[in-house]
Amino acid sequence: MTRRIAVLISGRGSNLQSIIDAIASRKLDATLAIVVSSRAEAPGLTRARQAGVEAVCLSPAAAPDRDAYDRAIVDLLRARDIALVCLAGFMRLVGPPLLEAFPNRILNIHPSLLPAFPGLDAQRQALEHGVRITGATVHLVNSDLDAGPIVLQAAVPVLDDDTAETLSARILVEEHRLYSEAIRLVLDGGWSIHGRRFVRHARVD
After folding, report:
1. How far apart are the first and last CA of the chain?
2. H or E element, residue 49
3. For residue 88, which of 26, 32, 157, 144 has the smallest C-alpha distance?
4. pTM of the prediction?
């Protein structure tokens, strides 16, 4: 498998920046070939261009339906020989055309310890539920929302005086560390999917 990756965004691109930095510092052996945003005003596009990465806005409004939009993304990524697709604040559900084009090759990062608190506002969900520990999860994407095989997780304690904003900030620190490590694991190979589990194979020297 090549080590060419794409990042799909819709907003500020904080996790995108962590990937750019990890590649620049050689902590992550990969080539960021393209960044695709669903929104023209996404600050992440500027981050990508400042790093010398091709950055493209592909507006959902320009496609007749969701599948056509996903097919347009697939065409962009295939033309650039993308091996792994990384969602980083991409505020759209991934549909069949993308899933079928990149089976077990789409990663997402989520600000909770999945399967707890899927969907939007995971940090607020954690506070409202009263959990003492939450965190971040990198998982492979499948047709169910935030339910694909889990690659890596990191725990973050919930403090008594936390707000959604303070908790989000501490989780984000773990997201930035975790995502590049998960990308490396997936690109390196030596793993398989067993049911819902992402299983790393023992190395034989």
Report:
1. 21
2. helix 43-50
3. 32
4. 0.95
CA 79-88-97 angle, 5° bins: 45
Residues 44, 46, 48: CA angle, nearest 5 degrees: 70
Residues marked as catalytic = 110
Token readout for 187 is 């690109």
Q: What is the arithmetic mean of pLDDT over 90-118?
A: 96
Chain segment 86-100, per-residue pLDDT in tens: 999 999 999 999 999
Output the CA angle 101-146-201, nearest 5 degrees.
70
CB contact set of 63 (below 8 Å; sequence gap of 6+): 69, 72
- Mean pLDDT confidence for 172-200: 96
| Count of positions (residues) in the chain | 205
The answer to whether the Cα torsion of 104, 109, 112, 118 is positive or negative is: negative
Q: Which burial class, exposed, middle or buried, applies to 129 when counting CB atoms under 10 A from its CB (0-12, 13-18, 19+)?
A: exposed
Q: Which residues contact 205 (CB under 8 A, 6 or more apart)?
A: none
Inform me whether the pLDDT recorded for 37 exceeds 90.
Answer: yes
Phi, psi at 109, each rounded to 5°: -115, 135
